[in-house]
Amino acid sequence: GGFQSMGLSNPVFKAIIHKGFKVPTPVQRKCIPLILQGDDVVGMARTGSGKTAAFLIPMLERLKTHSAKTGARGLVLSPSRELALQTQKVCKELMKYTDLRSGCIVGGDSLDEQFEMIASNPDILIATPGRLLHLAVEMNLDLRTIEYVVFDEADRLFEMGFAVQLHEILSRLPPSRQTLLFSATLPKMLVDFAKAGLQEPTLIRLDVDTKISRDLEMAFFSVKDNEKEGALLYLLKNVIKLPKHTQNEDQTDVKKYKKKKADKKEKSGTEADHQTILFAATKHHVEYLATLLETAGYQVSYVYGSLDQTARNIQINRFRNGVTNIMVVTDVAARGIDIPILENVINYDFSGSSKVFVHRVGRAARAGRRGWAYSLVSTDELPYLIDLQLFLTRPLVLGGEKDEYDYTSELVLGAMPKDSLIDDKAWADDKISKDAALEGIYRTAMNAYKLYNRTKPRAAAESYGRAKEVIKKKAYNNLHPLLLNEENQSAAEIERANMINAISGFRPAETIFEFGVRGTRKLTPATMMMRGRRQVVDKIITNHKAKKEAESAVLDKPLDIRDEKEVVEKLGGDVEEEELAQAFNIPESKEDKKKKTSFRDEEFYISYTQKDANTERGYSMNNEGSFMEQASKAQLDLTGDDNDAIKKSQNMLRWDSKKRKFIKGTGIGSDNKKLIRTESGALISASYKSGRFDEWAKKKHITLPRAGERELIGAGNMGQKRFRHNKSEEAKRVDPLAFDYEKKMKKRKLNESGGVVEQGGMGKKRVGEFGSTKSELKNASQIRKDRVALEKRREKSNRPSSSGGR
């Protein structure tokens, strides 16, 4: 059924209809009834499935109306500022017909404004963990009034290092609370957290079959590293056909976007079809690509993690309002940015994690709309594509292997036309060489890419071998089916492309020792040695070639998931179905009851691979790619067997090259910040308690009531933006026939001159009501003269007496 059958109150249901929600999504249909019963719920669903409304609607239904008692009753924790602001926006729309109050607490905003917002006694707090814990310590905030807490994008909360803050916040909440945990993935760390923080939770799992929307079509293009700029320009120009001008590009003032709701119009179909988001590796790549695309004439917005909050909001609003039609972002900055209508996603740098790829492309094809995801894959990035293929359990198909392709269920890989790539790449190189600023940004981006490659997690070892097999296939250099047309499908063009590929892959039959030596006159010892070696290994080489030709028949078939069970990997963050069953109450489905029988005894059979090994490896938080992580797992620490050895290990010193002194500890993972211990025993940064709130309360003459007491009088008006009248109009014309015409004109002149009126003849100037007054402020020359005179007087007074007296 719809929202009508859920038993919602009239204000909440009215707001849902006003928002435009007609039919609940699968995650809303399953979660909302359970949450309304008061159960703790763990919801798993892919990005864009309606998780935000799934926990906001029951929250508003439970809180119903504003409470005069001090203390928030609902809490939503988000991993990023953008996601928190997006949740706040949806929350305000859904509580439109209630008197509930909500507040947003994110980093980067003024602390004084947030003090005032909390003093206004909001019912719902939507916050990031770091700033919320900061305010809780600074204000000595009591969170025992919280009845309803939500961990939104919980996997991302732990990935970003908020584990300490989350456990500390959890310890401050009352045990009688209702806890909800929503996440796209469920690694082992989250299961342990759910066991500690949730009471008999129910698991709603909707991501097993559909990790990516069925309406999303994907295309993968094999390019070289130095051809990516040309490939991007070709993609925008010939495939997406992105226009270089938008309907609203002349609107550069952000204030022009703030119009009345009656004046708001939806984007036209042609404009919405070209909204494109471009993912790059680092912030330096974002700046470089944004500058390059602006040089090409496109309307571009850009966002990265360290961008100023005001600039970030301006860039996002320009993209949302159609001023720009392409946004260049990094993975860190894009998490939480909600773009309602997005048709195209481009992966300029292929993701090193399958889970990150799913989050990237999940921004398109939402709410029943079609969408495209285009990925540029270099030779070094091909193993990550193999990892993705195993994670999604979809076949990898090369161009030219089939007549018809299904871009929603297959990963189709193909090349781009060489001529067009060369032309676009030459244009980009020409612009870089002529523009000094662009050349500097390009060099910085290339240096950043080297560091990015060194720190990127490695793909599975098996994927590197599979990638080599794919590259050796003849179809690897075929054009992508999406790019086929009459020009590049002609026989002459195909033969020309094959010749270029043969030249690029040419390997000489002779070694350097045999080159140029045909007869017996120019024989050298090295040549004689190579000829003797060829007689010995010639048979081995022939057998190896025959073996490769026999294998090519198998390799020419589409790469499927047939070898998935042979991949044996040691994973750190996997969760088995048995462990999920112990941690959560999982509702049984009809499919589970109709299990197929097998010759294996499920009670005693032990498989040599984990169930869903590749899927869980993609979901895993702990990538075992970095040396430090591998070394820390291989490290063996032995406790001393006597008191002296134990003391020695505790007092071990290490030389810190930055501080240039010996410090205690290993230095691995520590940031050398001063820490304080909270009531729960957790260590947090000492900068959280700075005394700013006490100064603010003293300045405002406010004493906040304790949790549960009656709120301050006029608390609802606190934290609101005050309207200031800044409008100025020209004065009306004075009627010359009026009785007091001269008096009015004299008064107007007085106002226009700032209180100074010049009288005719030899009259003096009059300032205000009390006449002219001498200014007591001295200028620089007067101060200089006074100092010289003072020095002269000091010298004269210190001069010895001429009479020689005592």
From TrEMBL:
It is found in: Nucleus, Nucleolus. It is an enzyme of class 3 (hydrolase). The keyword Nucleotide-binding applies. Residues 772-782 have a biased composition (Polar residues). Its EC number is 3.6.4.13. Its main location: nucleus. Signal peptide: none annotated. The keyword Nucleus applies. Coiled coil: none annotated. It catalyses: ATP + H2O = ADP + phosphate + H(+). SMART domains: DBP10CT, DEXDc, HELICc. Residues 32-204 form the Helicase ATP-binding domain. Residues 250-269, 747-806 are annotated as: Disordered. PROSITE patterns: DEAD_ATP_HELICASE (PS00039), HELICASE_ATP_BIND_1 (PS51192), HELICASE_CTER (PS51194), Q_MOTIF (PS51195). Residues 783-798 have a biased composition (Basic and acidic residues). Transmembrane segments: none annotated. One of its GO terms (molecular function) is RNA binding. Residues 1-29 form the DEAD-box RNA helicase Q domain. Residues 253-413 form the Helicase C-terminal domain. A motif (Q motif) lies at residues 1-29. GO terms for cellular component: cytosol; nucleolus. Pfam families: DBP10CT, DEAD, Helicase_C. ATP-binding RNA helicase involved in the biogenesis of 60S ribosomal subunits and is required for the normal formation of 25S and 5.8S rRNAs. Belongs to the DEAD box helicase family. DDX54/DBP10 subfamily. This is RNA helicase.
